[in-house]
Amino acid sequence: MMKKIFAVSALTLILNACSGTQLGVGVGTGFPGVGVGAGLSFPIGQKDVPNDEAYAQNIIKEIYDQIGDTRRYAGKLCTIRIATDAEGVVLDVTRLEGDESWCDQVMMAATQLHQVSAPPTAMVDRLQHGLTLDLIPK
After folding, report:
1. 63 vs 79: CA distance, rounded Å
2. What is the distance between the alpha carbons of residues 105 and 99, in angstroms, rounded to a whole number?
3. Which residues does residue 134 pair with via DSSP β-bridges, in sequence order?
């Protein structure tokens, strides 16, 4: 009886943990201005187009270009969510977590981006709800 209760409890926990889970995808260390562990997340099952990661990297690069010198923030994390429309017009930028001073710089730069490049067609609906990006300068 105890084994059945444990099995049902474990199954319930697993199913609850899987609902709404975000899959983190690392951007990679070779991308200029993006540190180890910097990444983006797509809801599970939605990272099915190879251009998704490249598009997110372009947004990160545009934010870094706005900031300029990021050396004093090396290794610090700022996680944001950015939403755009089909033409790449920035609808919303939300700070989710991270180092306060680094996130202040990221938010200033991201809100100055009134438009980014138009997203791949497969990403348009997802981007209206927001794309989560981790920015960690080297």
Report:
1. 12
2. 10
3. 79
Average pLDDT, the chain: 75
Structure tokens at 130: 């927001």
Give the count of alpha carbons within 13 A of 79, CB side only.
9
**28-55 burial by CB neighbour count: b if 16+ within 10 A, else e?**
eeeeebbbeebbbbbeeeebeeeebbeb
Tell me the pTM.
0.64
More confident residue, 76 or 129: 76
Q: Edge-to-edge strand order for the sheet containing 39-43?
A: 22-26, 39-43, 131-135, 78-84, 90-98
Beta bridge pairs of residue 84: 90
**Residue type at 66 in one-letter notation:** Q
